[in-house]
UniProtKB/TrEMBL annotation:
This is Cyanovirin-N domain-containing protein. Keywords: Signal. It comes from the Eukaryota. The keyword Signal applies. The lineage of its organism: Eukaryota, Fungi, Dikarya, Ascomycota, Pezizomycotina. It comes from Podospora appendiculata. Residues 1-18 form the signal peptide.
Length: 111
């Protein structure tokens, strides 16, 4: 019983963390800005503007990682998104992703 409870807690803890990316000020992942953790179903702002990322951790099942040109997670401004749960052929751990415009906010949402 104790093992079952421990495993359930680990599964829930892993899905609540969200995705994590390293951000870069250039388009080819050369000039590191820092790391950003985006909790599932939240918006992250207040970090340095960036133009490329490398994925360091995936989000929960059916989460989308969205990157916004606005200073908020505002879908009326230019934005792009990917599946953040490891199911994307582009949003993969360790791969440099060049974004089409400078990014000011990033978010995670369930689909």
């Amino acid at each position: 019983m104790h093992l079952t409870n421990t495993l359930a807690l680990l599964v829930l803890a892993g899905t609540g963390l969200g995705f994590r990316v390293s951000t870069y000020s250039d388009t080819n992942c050369q000039t590191l800005n820092g790391d950003v953790n985006v909790y599932d179903n939240t918006c992250a702002t207040g970090h340095a503007t960036f133009q490329s990322v490398t994925v360091t951790a995936y989000g929960a099942h059916r989460q989308r990682a969205a990157f916004y040109s606005a200073n908020a997670c505002d879908a009326t401004s230019p934005w792009i998104d990917y599946y953040a749960d490891g199911g994307s052929d582009k949003f993969l751990k360790g791969r440099c992703i060049s974004l089409p415009f400078p990014i000011h906010a990033l978010g995670s949402r369930s689909v």
